[in-house]
């Protein structure tokens, strides 16, 4: 867990590395072999459902994608 600025929340928020399923989904989406530099925003946007922001950034780049990529919640 690390605190980073989240571009879509427009605030510093807790981020964590991607889990294996998320990394696999992002590799597929980007057509890349490695996505180890990405962090996902864990800010809770809806307290009732616990829905999280899930916006992606890297350690050094707060906005690596334009428009931003938010990983979908797995089924
Ligand atoms: Zn966020």
From TrEMBL:
<feature type="compositionally biased region" description="Pro residues">
    <location>
        <begin position="66"/>
        <end position="75"/>
    </location>
</feature>
<protein>
    <submittedName>
        <fullName>Uncharacterized protein</fullName>
    </submittedName>
</protein>
<feature type="region of interest" description="Disordered">
    <location>
        <begin position="56"/>
        <end position="75"/>
    </location>
</feature>
């Amino acid at each position: 867990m690390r605190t980073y600025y989240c571009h879509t929340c427009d605030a510093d928020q807790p981020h964590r590395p991607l889990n294996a399923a998320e990394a696999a989904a992002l590799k597929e989406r980007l057509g890349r072999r490695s996505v180890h530099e990405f962090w996902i925003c864990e800010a809770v946007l809806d307290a009732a459902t616990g829905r999280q922001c899930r916006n992606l950034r890297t350690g050094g780049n707060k906005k690596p994608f334009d428009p931003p990529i938010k990983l979908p919640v797995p089924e």
